[in-house]
Amino acid sequence: MKLQIASQLAIFAVLQLAAHEDKQLSVGEIGAKFGVSSHHLAKVMHVLGRAGLVRSTRGAGGGYQFIGNPRRTTLLDIVELFENFGPHRPDAKTPGDVTGEGRALREVLAEVDDIARATFGSITIATMVRLVERRSAEGHDTL
Amino acid sequence: MPMTITERSTKKTVIIRRARSADVAHVIELDAQITGVAKPDYWHDAFASYGESRPHERFFLVATPINRPAESQILGFILGEIRAWEFGSEPCGWVFALSVKPDVRLHGIAQALFAAISAKFKEAGTTKMRTMVARDNRLHLLFFRGEGMMAGPYIQLEKDLDEEPNPDKRWWEIE
C-alpha cells in the first residue's frame, strides 16, 4: 500500500520531533533530512499544529516541537489528518455497487481496510521511535 | 533528569518466577476479573500442562512484588510454549496469555513478563516468538507492538460453520 506524500511527511516530521524532545527543529532542518521543500512541509506542519500534535515557536532558536503523547498517538491518528483512510463510505457510489460482484469485492476491500487500520492504529510514535533507532543502527542514519 | 521515551528506572521491584500451585487461584481470580468469565478448569489444566510439565519448552510465569516473593499475591502472569512444525513453522515461542492486575498497570509489569518469557524462549534455542491478538483489541496490540512485535508471515483465517454446503451436491460420504 502507499500513503499520500503529505501523510508520509507528517509521520517523518513527528518522528523527528519526538526523537528530539529537547530540541526545536525548523521546517528547513526537517525538510533537509528527507529531501523535501520547506514550502511543502510547512503546509503539513500547519495541519499537525491544528490537530494539537506540534507547537511552533517563532524567532531565533524557534521551531517546531512535538506536544502529543508519544505513547498514545498512533500512526493512524496522523494519517487520518491527511487522507480518507478507512472503510468504504456508504454514500460513495461506484459502478456495480449493488451487484453481487460489487458486494463481494467490497467485503474483500473491507478486510484489507480493517487490517490496515489495525496496523496503523496499533503503532504509537514511541514504538516507531524505537523502530527507527533499531533500523538506523543497522545503517548509518543521522539527522 | 526526566526519562526519554526509551528509558526507564532500573530499580528492581518485581520478581518473575515460575507459577506454583498456590498461584493458580490468583490467576483464576485475575483472569475472571479481566475477562468477566471464570475458567477454573481451564487454568488448572493450564497449570498442569504449562506449569509442571516439559519445563524446558513450556513457561507459566508470574510476577510478584520483590519484597513479598513468598506470598502468592501475583501482579500478573504470562503463559507460553515453544511449538514446532505446526503450519510448517520452525520452532517458535508462542505467547498464549498475558494479564496484569488493573491497579498495577502502566508500571512495566507486562513488559517484565514479556521480557522474561522472551529470555526463556531464547535460552531454549528459539529465535522467534509469536502471539495472536484480536484486531480490535487496541490495548494488547499497542503493548505487543511496543515490545517490537511486527506482523508475521502467517494470516489467520476462519469461517462460520453454519455455512453448510448443499448436501445434494456432495460427491463424498462421511463414514
Helix content of chain B: 25-40%
- Number of strand segments of chain A: 2
Major sheet size, sense and barrel closure of chain A: 2 strands, antiparallel
- Major sheet characteristics of chain B: 5 strands, mixed
Give a structural overview.
- The complex is a heterodimer of chains A (143) and B (175).
- By secondary structure, chain A is mostly helical.
- Chain A has a domain at 5-84 and 124-138: Orthogonal Bundle (Arc Repressor Mutant, subunit A).
- Chain A is built from 6 helices and 2 strands.
- Chain A has a two-stranded antiparallel sheet.
- Chain A is elongated and about 60 Å long.
- Chain A starts with a helix and ends in a 5-residue tail after the last helix.
- Chain B has one domain: Aminopeptidase (3-Layer(aba) Sandwich).
- In chain B, strand 3 and strand 4 form a beta hairpin.
- In chain B, strands 1-2-3-4-5 form a 5-stranded mixed β-sheet, sandwiched between helices.
- With 175 residues, chain B is of the alpha+beta class.
- In chain B, helix 1 packs across helix 2.
- Chain B has helices at 24-35, 40-51, 109-123, 138-146; strands spanning 14-18, 58-65, 76-83, 92-100, 129-130.
- The longest helix of chain B has 15 residues, at 109-123.
- Chain B has 4 helices and 5 strands; from the N terminus they run E-H-H-E-E-E-H-E-H.
- Chains A and B meet through helix 5 and helix 6 of A and helix 4 of B.
Summarize the helices and strands and which ones pair or pack.
The complex is a heterodimer of chains A (143) and B (175).
Chain A: H1 5-19, H2 27-34, H3 38-50, E1 54-57, E2 63-66, H4 75-79, H5 100-121, H6 125-138
Antiparallel strand pairs in A: 1-2
Chain B: E1 14-18, H1 24-35, H2 40-51, E2 58-65, E3 76-83, E4 92-100, H3 109-123, E5 129-130, H4 138-146
Parallel strand pairs in B: 4-5
Antiparallel strand pairs in B: 1-2, 2-3, 3-4
